[in-house]
Amino acid sequence: MGLRYEKIHVCPNDCILYRNENESAKSCPECNLSRYKKKEGVPAKVLGYFPIIPRFKRMYSDPVDAEKLTWHKFGRKKVGLLRHPADSPQWRFIDGQLPDFGSEERNLRLGLSTDGMNSYSSLSSIHSTWPVMLVAYNLPPSLCMKRKYIMLSMLISGPKQPGNDIDEYLAPLINDLKLLWEEGVEVFDANRNEMFNFRAMLFCTIQDYPAYGNLSIL
Ligand SMILES: [Zn+2]
């Protein structure tokens, strides 16, 4: 389907990602720890990033999904009750204060959710892997929390939780989110059969209280 993923090597002490200026480094410039396990070529720690822009393009390449992504504007019944984030003052604030973003109903308002989980055992907390999920709140309440529409954007592998160093890990995702916020990308809308400048914003984050502390430093 052309939806690739990136394996990015990481310093096991969470100092840096081996990308950009550190792409070819063999050891961490901050803590000197080797990039590899004893055997050369086997990375000590890997971050999985699933680039989001091709996946948003794919959502709009399906006419049914493309129409569903405008539900908040055309399908939502406005009855004065708070039944979806689109009914919230925050949503209306964006429409009012950022009209160049809010007036294009196909621009996505995203929720980011993350927490530690143990992929090996549900009871032990020794191992902590952090999946980073994105939710598109343009979708109706019956869909936005469905597995099909929740997007895994990143997998921060354990064994220890990233803590405040989560900002290092989130950098590739934040780069893409910045591009989508500042400039946007050209996307084909299969429902209206046209190209448009697609943008997205981080509307909210969903986490428990300890993760709130980690994410709030972003
Ligand atoms: Zn390091």
H/E order of the elements? EEHHHHHEEHEHEEEH
CA-to-CA gap between the ends?
Answer: 32 Å
As residue ranges, the low-confidence spans are: none
Number of folding domains?
A: 1
Q: How many strands?
A: 8
Bound molecules: zinc ion
Percent of residues in helices: 25-40%
Radius of gyration: 19 Å
Strands ordered across the widest β-sheet: 1-2-5-4-3-8
- The helix-and-strand class reads alpha+beta
Give a brief description.
With 218 residues, the protein is an alpha+beta fold.
Describe this structure in words.
This protein has 218 residues and is α+β, with helices and mostly antiparallel strands. The chain has helices spanning 52-60, 63-68, 71-74, 89-97, 99-102, 141-144, 166-182, 209-215; strands at 6-9, 46-49, 108-114, 130-136, 151-156, 185-189, 194-198, 200-206. It contains eight helices and eight strands. The strands form two sheets. It has a six-stranded mixed β-sheet. β6 (185-189) and β7 (194-198) form a beta hairpin. The mean pLDDT is 91. Bound molecules: zinc ion (ZN). Zinc ion is lined by residues 11, 13, 15, 28, 30-31, 33.
State the main characteristics:
two-stranded antiparallel ribbon
Question: Could you give the topology of this structure?
Answer:
Elements: E1 6-9, E2 46-49, H1 52-60, H2 63-68, H3 71-74, H4 89-97, H5 99-102, E3 108-114, E4 130-136, H6 141-144, E5 151-156, H7 166-182, E6 185-189, E7 194-198, E8 200-206, H8 209-215
Parallel strand pairs: 3-8
Antiparallel strand pairs: 1-2, 2-5, 3-4, 4-5, 6-7
The structure holds zinc ion.
